[in-house]
């Protein structure tokens, strides 16, 4: 392991093995929020509720995640990141056990919501890692950890769809619990102990939370990045929830395994995102984000005309999955290069906005499909994608003006 001093001058650089171990941890923890995507119709039928109402499960999960990040993630600037991750991952494991045992829709939704509240580790780890890598590798390592998120989503969707088709949707959560139990036991080894002293906050917990908004007020570029990613994540959730309902509808006639197999297209992101992260290191985060947003817009525009078959859907899904995560990576790069002692709190604001967007996308995606079918969902996606392009262009122009 490289033992040179990283950018905060106190902690050793992570080894490549540690970087990959953290990416795997992120993948398993992230997957919990996405098992429901391909099986959402099956879960609705299992509890005897409609397509519009089932959207409350992922929506509340993501709203709770946003609240948990707001209340818990800022502690990462002052409390051992390792200790926090161990606590949060253990709590998630218990929540998954609750989902496995729940036989009532309200109890299932409640356990899923609390699970979301404690889904902090995937968003604490990038700030942890950013303080322990060389500045010139920030984009590459951020992209690697983002690839862990993508891989977790990929495995969750494919695995859930296939398992539900050959067993049932309940078995999906039994497997999820087993994976989380394994991660809970593995994490103390994957995340090495921190030996550097932690800076203590000069004020109380309330002031610490308030400082998140104070820091956000002083960094308008970060606020713009958060808004862009909020819209980006809203598109992500709306498209996949509607896609699952669309493919398993009587008109299309596919099973949940087909949704899982189609989700395999996200594998392209696992390969492309680290490479695009290195590309963003070279040309600049804001310019790379604008290019990615334009490519994503082209993919979104093809959803409706090509949405009549799985073969047709492969084209827009390939484009969206190729560049969509890069919008997130480049957004984080705009503030993860700032002072180490504020990165976790800036990440807090960014992720809160992101998951509020995801919750809105979850509700809009299922509601739009319930009322307007696939066409209604595609119209919403196109409007949001145009907004992302416009905001990315604004951010790039502001940055160029600041440099001039």
From TrEMBL:
Residues 18-402 form the Major facilitator superfamily (MFS) profile domain. The keyword S-adenosyl-L-methionine does not apply. Keywords: Membrane, Transmembrane, Transmembrane helix. The chain crosses the membrane at residues 20-40, 52-72, 84-102, 108-129, 141-164, 170-190, 226-246, 258-276, 288-304, 348-368, 374-395. InterPro entries: MFS, MFS_dom, MFS_trans_sf. PROSITE patterns: MFS (PS50850). It comes from the Bacteria. The keyword Membrane applies. This is MFS transporter.
